[in-house]
Design brief:
The protein is mostly beta strands and 184 residues long. The chain contains 3 helices and 13 strands. The chain starts with a strand and ends in a 5-residue tail after the last strand. The relative contact order is 0.15.
């Protein structure tokens, strides 16, 4: 978790979202089990884009709401037809709260595969975890550099932190190594 705070402002539940967007704001919502009720918010478009560039979907992000600091996780980003962000959802988390989260899989060592005329055909780019919010990693790194043709990567093959549970099937295929001529 970084020490950077991202500012959001409360908005009325009946505010006009189109007007907000024209004014350079993106409407969003902060929700969570430990909030009395969901909080409708807005964030300046450039700040939201900066936040999303420097954080993964599993990152714990510190949000400043009128001086109150909230630890949140990005749960959903909705985009319009022109790929512009039109809404965002943040989940408020308490320290040690047990949550479910989809975490991105990052593959390293692919340059070694290329030198062997092989390619990774990744079939799944996220794995779902459950555990204390601080223990769920921001991403899972899988080293494919020593793999050979037809080697497979399954969920059960990855190492996970203690106190964290993988919710996906252990036999779920993450990827397979193919000759470079037949990979999709």
């Amino acid at each position: 978790m970084s020490n950077i705070f991202y500012s959001v402002k409360r908005r009325g539940t009946n505010s006009n979202n189109k007007s907000l967007r024209r004014a350079g704001q993106v409407p969003g919502i902060i929700y969570g089990e430990f909030l009395e009720k969901s909080i409708p918010v807005t964030m300046k478009t450039p700040e939201l884009k900066k936040m999303l560039r420097s954080n993964n979907s599993g990152s714990i992000i510190e949000i400043d709401l009128a001086g109150e600091k909230l630890n949140c996780v990005v749960k959903d980003i909705q985009k319009g037809l022109l790929n512009e962000i039109i809404h965002f959802d943040l989940q408020y988390t308490k320290p040690s709260e047990v949550i479910k989260m989809k975490i991105p899989v990052k593959y390293i060592g692919q340059e070694n595969l290329i030198s062997k005329r092989l390619l990774l055909n990744a079939s799944t780019s996220f794995i779902e975890f459950q555990g204390p919010v601080e223990k769920i990693p921001e991403f899972i790194e899988v080293d494919v550099s020593a793999m050979n043709i037809n080697d497979k990567i399954l969920v059960k093959d990855i190492s996970i932190p203690n106190d964290v549970t993988v919710l996906d099937d252990p036999e779920l295929l993450l990827g397979v190594i193919n000759p470079s001529g037949s990979a999709q």
